[in-house]
């Protein structure tokens, strides 16, 4: 499908099997942040509640990423461009593309910094060679960026090689930790020192892949059918997510450490831990650079033929941030961006699946700024931040306005529901501008 307004297209020969797309999602799920969140909820919950939180949290992700992915499969458009249907071309280009580009670039930099820091520390402990963290972060950022510039084929083959290796390494890490630290006894007697409510655990699980679910169209547009989108989303996210968060939870309870590389170092196989760390970061980070490049393409008004250039810019900027060591100051800001994205999902779902009844023939890209979509997105994002505790990262702001931190249910889900309902209402009550549409295909 070729889009006359944007120049984006998916040719028949570019269509991929659902297994190929699922491998990209699996590679995205196998990462240090997932282990970290698993360790966090594992330290505050019984294992039964951990499993419940993971299944519900990733179940929510799978539902909305399947809907966004099927829309991408129908239209052939990445999320940043597809949003023009609900927010207008200028709204999607300047607001949504900026949010997605900044989020992906920022997370690329954070992952590169994590990899560089750990690589330098482990190499020093293994060989006595001291490589500056900035240099190490730059090196691995460039390696990951080169892979991302190959586009979907690069991601597919990287994950086909790396994912099985990572699963074996994680399995060995858990077995070694359980054997060395008498894990069964520790888990049987474990009492969380600071219990975490189930709803908080679900929110944390959703947060690990909120952005990934929203940009599912970037990859699912290459799927051959809607059924393939559903299979790749559910089988690519839920099993891998359950495994990784459980690995993090078990290791945190047994050893007090969620990081697989650190655990493997503790049990005497640091080289294996180093390989696991690099591959886990690599398979996740190439998706950050690739999606960041697509969003940047739309922001700059260039078509997909120049995605290598925009991907290089996105990843290069993230690598630069990692190298100079300023990313720690952006963590709260990136958390805020991650909370904003699900509200976009609500607007897109309402526009395509409810107003448009899921019919590709009814999907159109609106020019300019479409008020119902922009208003719904902004209100939904605000509700997600307020009820999800996002503003807790900004103590001065909460002190001045305590109402900004009012936890309720699941923040990202609240944002989706509010933006969805509000969009449906506003489309019906606000006058529709004439001749404001461009055909999607």
Automatic annotation (TrEMBL):
Localization: Membrane
Organism field: Fusibacter paucivorans
Keywords: Membrane, Transmembrane, Transmembrane helix
Transmembrane segments: 21-41, 47-70, 91-110, 130-150, 157-178, 198-220, 232-254, 260-286, 307-327, 333-354, 375-397, 409-427
Organismal lineage: Bacteria, Bacillati, Bacillota, Clostridia, Eubacteriales
Similarity comment: Belongs to the purine-cytosine permease (2.A.39) family.
InterPro entries named among the record's database cross-references: CodB (IPR030191), Pur-cyt_permease (IPR001248)
Principal location class: membrane
Bilayer topology: Multi-pass membrane protein
Name of this protein: Cytosine permease
């Amino acid at each position: 499908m070729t889009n006359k307004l944007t120049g984006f297209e998916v040719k028949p020969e570019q269509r991929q099997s659902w297994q190929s797309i699922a491998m990209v999602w699996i590679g995205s799920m196998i990462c240090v942040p997932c282990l970290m969140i698993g360790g966090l909820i594992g330290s505050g919950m019984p294992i039964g509640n951990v499993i419940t939180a993971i299944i519900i949290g990733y179940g929510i992700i799978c539902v909305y990423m399947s809907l966004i992915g099927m829309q991408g499969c129908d239209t052939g458009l990445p999320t940043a461009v597809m949003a023009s249907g609900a927010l207008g071309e200028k709204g999607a280009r300047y607001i949504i593309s900026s949010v997605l580009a900044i989020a992906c670039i920022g997370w690329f930099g954070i992952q590169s910094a994590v990899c560089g820091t750990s690589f330098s520390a482990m190499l020093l402990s293994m060989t006595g060679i001291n490589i500056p963290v900035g240099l190490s972060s730059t090196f691995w950022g460039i390696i990951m960026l080169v892979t991302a510039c190959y586009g979907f084929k690069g991601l597919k083959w990287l994950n086909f090689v790396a994912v099985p290796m990572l699963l074996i390494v994680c399995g060995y890490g858990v077995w070694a930790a359980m054997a060395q630290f008498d894990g069964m006894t520790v888990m049987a007697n474990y009492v969380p020192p600071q219990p975490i409510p189930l709803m908080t655990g679900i929110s944390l699980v959703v947060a690990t892949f909120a952005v990934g679910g929203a940009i599912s169209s970037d990859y699912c547009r290459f799927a051959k059918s809607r059924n393939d989108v559903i299979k790749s989303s559910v089988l690519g996210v839920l099993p891998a997510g359950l495994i990784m968060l459980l690995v993090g939870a078990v290791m945190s309870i047994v050893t007090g450490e969620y990081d697989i590389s650190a655990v493997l170092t503790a049990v005497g196989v640091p080289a294996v831990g180093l390989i696991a760390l690099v591959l886990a970061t690599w398979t996740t980070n190439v998706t950050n650079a690739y999606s960041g490049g697509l969003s940047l393409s739309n922001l700059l008004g260039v078509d997909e033929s120049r995605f290598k250039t925009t991907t290089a810019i996105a990843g290069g900027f993230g690598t630069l941030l990692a190298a100079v060591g300023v990313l720690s100051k952006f963590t709260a800001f990136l958390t805020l961006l991650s909370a904003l994205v699900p509200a976009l999902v609500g607007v897109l779902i309402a526009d395509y699946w409810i107003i448009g009844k899921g019919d590709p023939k009814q999907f159109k890209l609106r020019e300019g700024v479409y008020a119902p979509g922009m208003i719904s997105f902004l209100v939904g994002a605000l509700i997600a931040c307020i009820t999800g505790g996002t503003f807790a990262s900004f103590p001065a702001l909460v002190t001045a306005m305590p109402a900004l931190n009012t936890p309720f249910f699941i923040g990202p889900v609240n944002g989706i529901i509010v933006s969805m309902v509000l969009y449906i209402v506003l489309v019906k009550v606000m006058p529709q501008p004439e001749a404001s549409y461009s055909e999607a295909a």
